[in-house]
Amino acid sequence: MSARDFGKEVTIEIPELPPSPADMSWTSPPEMQLEKGKDYTATIKIYGGGEIILDLLEEEAPVTVNNFVFLANEGYYDGITFHRVIPDFMAQGGDPTGTGSGGPGYIFENEFHTDARHDGAGVLSMANSGLQGGKGTNGSQFFITFRETSFLDGLNADNSPKDCSIQGTSCHSVFGRVLEGMEVLESITPRDPSQGGPSDVIESVTISAE
Q1: Residue 89 annotated as catalytic
Q2: Are 63 and 28 in contact (CB under 8 A)?
Q3: Is 172 one of the annotated active-site residues of the chain?
Q4: Residue 84 appears among annotated catalytic residues
C-alpha cells in the first residue's frame, strides 16, 4: 500500500493478522501433566504489542494451571482475542468465538487458596459463568486484573469459603501473577464484545518449566 506524504510517495506496510484459531474441542478436562517440583511460567505474546510474562501458581492452583498449560501447549489460545477489556478492572480473553460464550468443550471445578487472591493488579484468574447445578463452569477463558478486585475471591477475608451458589456472587480461581509486561497489559484496547470493534490478538502463549 502506498500513499503520498508532503508530496513524496511512501510505502505503508500492513502486516497480516495471524490465522483464526483452529476449532479445538475436548470432551473432558486434561489429565494432570504438571511435573512435580517444576516452576511454571507463561508468556502471552500480543500480536504487534509486546509480551506479558506470568508466574503460574502450580502449588496453589494445580488443576487450573494444568488446564491452562494444556491448552497453551495445544495452541488453543493462538489467534484468540482479548474480547472483553474494561479499563480499571480487567482484560479477558481465551474464547475462540470472541463473544464470551465459547470454551474448550468441557468445564471443571473452582480452585481457591488463601495465598491466591485478587489482591492487586496483574492477577491471572479464570472467567466463569457461576455455579451451574452446583458445579463450576471454568473452561478456557481467563482474565488479568488492572487493580485489586477482592470481591472476586472465592474465599472470605477470614479464609472461610464464600457461598458461591448465591446468585450474583462472584467466585473466581486465581492461578497466576504478572512478572513482566504490565505496561503491555494496560495498553490492550478497551472492548465490549456486545458492541464489537477492534480487539488485541494473542499471537501465542508459551509455557516454560524450570
Answers
A1: yes
A2: no
A3: yes
A4: yes
Residue type, 89: F
Q: Does 16 fall in a domain?
A: no
Classify the C-alpha dihedral 17-22-23-29 as positive or negative: negative
pLDDT in tens, 23-78: 789 999 999 999 999 999 999 999 988 999 999 999 999 999 999 999 999 999 99
Q: Where are the alpha helices (DSSP H) in 20-143?
A: 62-73
One of 117, 172, 177, 191 is an active-site residue; which one?
172
Domain range for residue 163?
A: 39-210
Q: Which among 82, 143, 146, 175 is annotated as catalytic?
A: 143
Tell me whether residue 26 is in a domain.
Answer: no
Would 114 be classed as within a structural domain? yes
Q: Provide the grid cell at 32.
A: 494432570
Tens digit of each residue's pLDDT (9 = 90 or more) over 152-194: 999 999 999 999 999 999 999 999 999 999 999 999 999 998 8
Q: Which of 56, 71, 83, 84 is catalytic?
A: 84
The CATH number assigned to the domain holding 185 equals 2.40.100.10
Give the number of domains in the chain. 1
In a domain, 13, yes or no: no
